[in-house]
Design a protein that fits this description.
By secondary structure, the chain is an alpha/beta fold. It has 11 helices and 9 strands. It folds into 2 domains: 134 residues, 3-Layer(aba) Sandwich (Rossmann fold), CATH 3.40.50; 151 residues, Aspartate/ornithine carbamoyltransferase (Rossmann fold), CATH 3.40.50. 36% of the residues lie in helices and 14% in strands. The chain has a 5-stranded parallel beta sheet. A 4-stranded parallel beta sheet has the order 2-1-3-4, sandwiched between helices. The chain is globular and about 55 Å long. It starts with 19 loop residues before the first helix and ends in an 8-residue tail after the last helix. The structure holds phosphoric acid mono(formamide)ester. Phosphoric acid mono(formamide)ester binds next to helix 2.
Length: 315
């Protein structure tokens, strides 16, 4: 069977749009990028002369930094626009901002925005590649790709594997991108959380809904804990942090119910003591920092495929 050799698209907006072959191409290329990143001098000239800009309307540690590292590994130039000191503060709108960045010679824009659909709008209004680094409650595709890459490193094929995603599904772009990607690869996805945090139509995304974490972790291959967004507590989605942790948090006692080879994941940043206690966050079953490491390789693969055109093995 012929493997796809390039991402024939200008933008990466979400995993909803990516084919299984495209996802597999990114994962294969990320394996090569991980090898490059592990070299004593992790640098190749592949994207020499390309200009990449990051524009984050929301805060980030992992995503923005790993894109910076990925760009530097590939020898691209990268410029970070700080919203707080940019002309956005003077009221410049999104499209004007992007058009101005583009005429300075930008080849790709990595953007995060609180509005779902903002990267798609940007993509329609410029020639540069747009990479969605998280848009509202919609998608966070590069997070899901690094999560899937990490899962495959741990357990090989995801076909038939059980992945339990726990927390605020309604407001999670990480959950949505993971659900699109994992179900395309044949995984069995179960979402668990308070009924107020699970969208009514979520089963149309081919996932099972459960409210019983203890039951679901018994045979889970992966337990994926989402960040609880404390800012939503006042809206009454859950009664208290303590109650949330009791029902939907992980601690060493609850982990005794899970399979010995269960893997605990989290996209970061962790609210210690809420989604999980420190004995789990730092315990033997977690791969949370490995996810972060893999973010560099996966994002390098995406930059390469969108701006370079071929996969890194020269296929
Ligand atoms: N997981 C994630 O998107 O982390 P940052 O917000 O730090 O980028």
């Amino acid at each position: 069977m012929n493997k796809v050799k390039s991402l024939n698209r200008k933008d990466l907006l979400g995993l909803k749009d990516l084919s299984v072959d495209e996802i597999k191409l990114v994962l294969r290329t990320a394996r090569s990028m991980k090898e490059v990143a592990s070299r004593p001098i992790p640098k190749v000239p592949t994207l020499l002369g390309k200009h990449i800009v990051t524009l984050f309307y929301e805060a980030s540690t992992r995503t923005r930094t790993s894109f910076n590292m990925a760009a530097k590994i590939l020898s691209a130039n990268i410029t970070n626009v700080a919203i707080s000191s940019s002309s956005v503060i003077k009221g410049e709108n999104l499209i004007d901002t992007i058009k101005n960045l583009e005429v300075m010679g930008m080849d790709a824009l990595i953007m995060r925005h609180s509005m779902a659909g903002a990267p798609a709008l940007a993509g329609k209004n410029c020639q540069a590649s747009i990479i969605n680094a998280g848009d509202g409650f919609n998608e966070h595709p590069t997070q899901a790709l690094l999560d899937i890459f990490t899962m495959k490193e741990k357990k090989g094929s995801l076909k038939g594997k059980k992945i339990v995603i726990v927390g605020d599904i309604s407001h999670s772009r990480v959950a949505r991108s993971n659900i699109w990607g994992l179900t395309k690869l044949g995984a069995k996805v179960v979402v668990v959380g308070p009924p107020t945090m699970i969208p009514k139509d979520i089963e149309s995304m081919k996932v099972k809904v459960s409210y019983d974490l203890d039951r679901e972790i018994k045979d889970a291959d992966f337990i994926y804990m989402l960040r609880i967004q404390k800012e939503r507590q006042e809206s009454g989605l859950y009664p208290s942090i303590e109650e949330y942790h009791k029902l939907y948090g992980l601690n060493a006692e609850r982990m005794k119910k899970a399979r010995k080879d269960s893997v605990v994941m989290h996209p970061g940043p962790i609210n210690r003591g809420i989604e999980m206690t420190s004995d789990v966050a730092d315990g033997p079953y977690n791969v949370i920092l490995e996810q972060v490491t893999n973010g560099v390789a996966v994002r390098a693969a995406l930059l390469f495929l969108l701006l370079g055109g071929k996969n890194s093995s020269g296929e």
